């Protein structure tokens, strides 16, 4: 089976960079897969598209070396199974507030014996190889999102769920749940919550990932020892790059005018 290079990178102690696709254009997904990211995640929860487009985006990501993952819209085993059948090598599941929901999610990612995933990996076989079924359970990465005060209160039970590979922190929803403003830099309560999640995951020997909105918060997450960091989505990366190019053009024009002197 095609190896999961993201899992291998994190196991070696490297910090993985994860891209995030919120738009429906396959060109952006393909470009980011070739940009040096370790993985590219298709956002089916908040992305402006459905599962048909998600499959096309997975195909686009597969053209490059990045590992394809999907944030599902929830813990529905039918949806998760379909995404895995389409070739996703990782599932990030939102709204995991307790161990029961987490266990159901993990079960949806694994074949009978350890889970309830139904057989039918049509594209999974094309992407993963003919021995896909024999190795899928140990190749696919199952991430449970921690993004609420309720999840924090059940944190020790969630991270103890058998077969869970990692927890993925959603700092914006977590901020709202803690009565803080989302976006921008992490407030003290949110930062303390992130540290709690990291410590709980480390005690269980599972991975920790998180979304962040910029370079400063990305550096904070790396300093805290996270295994995977998502430095914004495709739209924010495009906007930031455009803003910098525009500033360079306008700044150069201003400088050129100032240096031109008078007559």
Rg from alpha-carbon coordinates: 20 Å
CATH topology: TIM Barrel
Total DSSP E strands: 8
Strand content: 5-15%
GO cellular component, one term: cytoplasm
Family: Belongs to the HpcH/HpaI aldolase family.
Domain HpcH/HpaI aldolase/citrate lyase: 20-240
Pfam family, one: HpcH_HpaI
What does this structure look like?
The protein has 263 residues and is α/β, with parallel strands linked by helices. It is 49% helix and 14% strand. It contains 13 helices and eight strands. Mean pLDDT is 95; it is low at 257-263.
Summarize it:
The protein is α/β, with parallel strands linked by helices.
Give a topology summary.
Blueprint (H helix, E strand, L loop, with lengths): L4 H7 L4 E6 L4 H8 L5 E5 L7 H11 L5 E5 L5 H9 L4 E4 L5 H10 L13 H7 L3 H8 L1 E6 L2 H5 L1 H5 L6 E4 L1 H7 L10 H17 L2 E5 L3 H9 L4 E3 L3 H27 L3
Parallel strand pairs: 1-2, 1-8, 2-3, 3-4, 4-5, 5-6, 6-7, 7-8
Helix pairs in contact: 2-3, 4-5
Organism: Rhodococcus opacus (strain B4)
GO cellular component, one term: cytoplasm
Keywords: Lyase, Metal-binding
Which short descriptors sum up this protein?
49% helix; 8-stranded parallel beta barrel; disordered C terminus; TIM Barrel; aldehyde-lyase activity; alpha/beta; 263 residues; 8 strands; 13 helices; globular; HpcH-HpaI_aldolase
């Amino acid at each position: 089976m095609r190896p999961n290079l993201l899992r291998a990178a994190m196991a070696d102690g490297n910090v993985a960079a994860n891209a995030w696709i919120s738009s429906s254009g396959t060109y952006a997904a393909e470009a980011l897969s070739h940009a040096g990211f370790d993985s590219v995640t298709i956002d089916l929860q908040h992305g402006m598209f459905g599962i048909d487009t998600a499959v096309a985006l997975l195909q686009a990501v597969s053209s490059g070396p990045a590992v394809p993952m999907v944030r599902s819209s929830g813990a529905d085993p039918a949806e998760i199974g379909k995404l895995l059948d389409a070739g996703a090598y990782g599932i990030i599941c939102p709204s995991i507030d307790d161990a029961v929901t987490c266990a159901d999610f993990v079960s949806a990612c694994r074949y009978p014996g350890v889970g309830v995933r139904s057989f039918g990996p049509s594209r999974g076989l094309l992407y993963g190889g003919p021995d896909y079924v024999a190795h899928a359970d140990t190749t696919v990465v199952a991430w449970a999102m921690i993004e609420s005060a309720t999840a924090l209160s059940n944190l020790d039970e969630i991270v103890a769920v058998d077969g869970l590979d990692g927890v993925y922190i959603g700092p914006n929803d977590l901020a709202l749940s803690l009565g803080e403003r989302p976006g921008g830099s992490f407030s003290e309560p949110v930062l303390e919550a992130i540290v709690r999640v990291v410590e709980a995951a480390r005690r269980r020997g599972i991975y920790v990932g998180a979304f962040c909105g910029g370079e400063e918060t990305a550096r904070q997450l790396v300093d805290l020892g996270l295994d995977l960091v998502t430095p914004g989505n495709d739209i924010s990366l495009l906007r930031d790059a455009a803003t910098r190019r525009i500033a360079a053009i306008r700044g150069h024009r201003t400088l050129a005018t100032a240096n031109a002197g008078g007559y």
